[in-house]
Design brief:
The complex is a heterodimer of chains A (364) and B (94). Chain A is α/β, with parallel strands linked by helices. Chain A has helices at residues 40-53, 71-80, 96-105, 119-126, 131-143, 162-171, 186-190, 192-195, 199-216, 276-282, 284-288, 305-308, 313-320, 337-348, and strands at residues 10-14, 57-61, 84-89, 109-113, 148-154, 176-181, 221-225, 245-248, 254-255. Classes of the chains: A alpha/beta (364), B alpha+beta (94). At the A-B interface, loops of A face strand 3 of B.
Chain lengths: 364, 94
């Protein structure tokens, strides 16, 4: 690794695309295969290579990682490399004994996804409601004295219920609550008209989150991730392309983010063929947008380019067909009108429309 | 706010280890990593067991080689408050 190459801190290990939920904002690809998942030994090697590369944290995610029968072995393998092991789960199925085995294997923390406090809302966005399972999973995590993060993706269907979501996180004994507004890529972009809230709805949610944060300081940490569609400046997507995060898909492709494979023309390599260190340092896809050399104006001379790193390349491609363009979420983009038009539609439309749920399709 | 009399202890989910790339100690927690300087590392080790902030300050003053007592107290309290702000510390009254 050259001196100029940053070191990744976090490995996002997508263990599987299989999942009991069908969330209409899922960050998984539109076309997914459940074939050819990496095996236990493959992941053990990936964890070892990631640790050698400087990774300190691993997020075991998916899909639903609990469907992997070897999850205990994977947790133990990651922990053996001294990685801080986070499990991201839907909490389905709730299985206290399994969570105890995972804790014994070295699991450090659990992030539980909650779709809504309203069962009808949960079913609308995810295809099913599973509040009892989520409560049971949270209780098991608490009994094991593991730190619990509750993650809620906010969208038009649930953004009016931030106080109730905070109350639920308190009741579940969470240490952290992430209120993350939907990022409109992949499935979420396909459902944008149904999911994008109005400016007034976002402002009220932000104010509710701020009030709860002040009230619960020291007991429950509350993060509110503002949506870039309403921010006029792009988000620092992944803290910069191939800068702090490296992701490995269920079938072994190494990427800088969840959506990078949606950009045509970039070459991606598989950890079955080449070491993670080699892919990270000189894989052409990783180098494509690392640093600032790729930036067009107005990004190239922008005072905020080291704050937002030029925004999201996948969004630039999804909306403009050009991954090297200025992120349209930025008010300085010549195509910011695309965002403004989407916002105007959200302001003008009445009740949320039907959502196209994420469904697995065999593509190979 | 943490004062000398406040009892402090690292939260049980916080893990301390050396960063193999820098050789420096780091604290790890969900979605967080915090690189420690020499004083931070000494304080973090002492925080593995519950004790008052004053006891930690006094231990560091004993081992001091140059900094004034006031400087050490300010540095330790400011570090402990930063840990608390990040949810890495459990605190209680003396």
């Amino acid at each position: 690794m050259s001196d100029e190459t940053p070191r990744p801190y976090t490995l996002i290990a997508e263990l599987t695309y299989r999942c009991p939920l069908g969330c209409g904002y899922c960050s998984n690809p539109l076309e997914m295969s459940t074939d050819n998942e990496l095996g236990t030994a493959d992941w053990e090697r990936v964890f070892a290579e990631a640790a050698a590369l400087g990774v300190l944290q691993v997020n075991l995610t998916g899909g639903e990682p609990l469907v992997r029968r070897d999850l205990e072995a994977l947790v133990a393998a990651a922990r053996a490399r001294e990685l801080y092991v986070n499990l991201t789960t839907s909490g389905i199925p709730a299985d206290a004994e399994r969570l105890a085995r995972l804790a014994a294997a070295g699991l450090d923390s659990v992030q539980l996804s909650v779709q809504d406090v309203d069962p009808h809302g949960a079913a609308w966005i995810a295809g099913r409601a599973d509040e009892p399972a989520k409560r049971a999973t949270a209780a098991a995590v608490r009994d094991l004295k593991l730190p619990l993060t509750v993650n809620v993706v906010l969208h038009r269907g649930n953004i009016g219920r931030v106080p109730e979501l905070v109350a639920l996180a308190e009741e579940l004994g969470a240490l952290r609550l992430e209120l993350a507004n939907t990022q409109f890529l992949g499935w979420a972009l396909a459902n944008r008209d149904a999911l994008l809230p109005s400016a007034a709805e976002i402002e009220r949610a932000r104010a509710d989150a701020a009030a709860a944060r002040a009230r619960l300081r020291g007991r429950l940490e509350i993060l509110f991730v503002r949506p870039d569609y309403h921010a006029d400046r792009p988000r620092a997507c992944m803290d910069g392309w191939a800068r702090r995060y490296v992701l490995v898909t269920p079938d072994g492709v190494a990427l800088p983010c969840h959506q990078a494979r949606s950009i045509p023309g970039l070459a991606w390599e598989n950890v079955r063929d080449r070491s993670l260190a080699a892919i990270w340092s000189d894989g052409s896809g990783f180098r494509a947008f690392r640093g600032e050399a790729w930036m067009p104006e107005p990004c190239r001379t922008c005072d905020e380019r080291q704050v937002d790193f030029g925004g999201c390349r996948c969004q630039a491609f999804a909306l403009l067909g050009d991954a090297a363009a200025t992120d349209p979420a930025c008010a300085l983009s010549p195509r910011h009108d695309l965002i403004q038009t989407a916002r105007a539609r959200a302001e003008a439309s009445a009740a949320p429309a039907a959502v196209r749920l994420r469904r697995l399709r065999q593509v190979s | 706010m943490i004062e000398r009399a406040t009892r402090v202890c690292l939260a049980r989910h916080v893990r301390m280890r050396d960063d193999p790339r820098t050789g420096k100690p780091v604290l790890l927690a969900p979605e967080r990593g915090l690189e420690l300087n020499a004083t931070g590392a000494r304080v973090a080790v002492l925080c593995r067991e519950e004790r008052t902030a004053g006891e930690i300050i006094d231990r560091l003053i004993l081992d001091s080689d140059g900094a004034t007592d006031r400087q050490i107290e300010d540095e330790v309290l400011s570090f402990l408050r930063a840990l608390e702000e990040r949810g890495l510390l459990v605190t209680g009254p003396s």
